[in-house]
Design a protein that fits this description.
Elements lengths: L9 H26 L16 E7 L4 E9 L7 E12 L5 E2 L2 E2 L2 E2 L1 E5 L1 H6 E3 L5 E3 L8 E10 L8 E12 L2 H8 L2 E5 L4 E5 L1
Antiparallel strand pairs: 1-2, 2-10, 3-4, 3-9, 3-11, 5-6, 7-10, 8-9, 12-13
Length: about 190
Amino acid sequence: MKRLKQKKSKKYLLITPILTLVVVGAGLLIVYALSHNTTVVTNDIPVGTGTVQIVDDSDPGFGKKEVSFVSSDANSIPMLLRIGYSETWKDSSDNVVSNVYNGNNVVTKTWTSAFTNDFVDGGDGWYYYKMLLNPSDSVKVITAIALAEPSYAAYNYDLNFRFEAIQADSAAATALWSKTATINTETSAVAWTF
């Protein structure tokens, strides 16, 4: 019997490396695609907003001076409020003049019961509201001013109010104002610790 020599096909020798390159290339392409696949997911967390404004309904000069702080947005969130005020007298040369004459303040201010009962002096130039300022609420703090010393009539008087309002949150009061606020959401009462 005659043995036939088997010829190895060169075709298989050529296909094997090409097939290996294709498989390796496809694998690398998949790895590259997977490693560079990025998905951005936006996690929108609704945050309440608060809009507090100062409303000044005053006559020029002395007399009617109505100042209120208003949560002007019905969709607002409850807010913590603190207010401050300063008064300045200046002469015609713009020099500051004392607002105390013979031991008394030159201007008599008619504070509202809300200011005298519902604000507490923080000892830092701010008066802290002992209630939450809820959506669409307002608090009036003064109704009138009067000149108590006629000799000051030639001077210029400025009564300026300032305020800050933050979300009704004890942690926010501590972080932003360095004060402790205990909030009762059922009664809207706020107890301040200084």
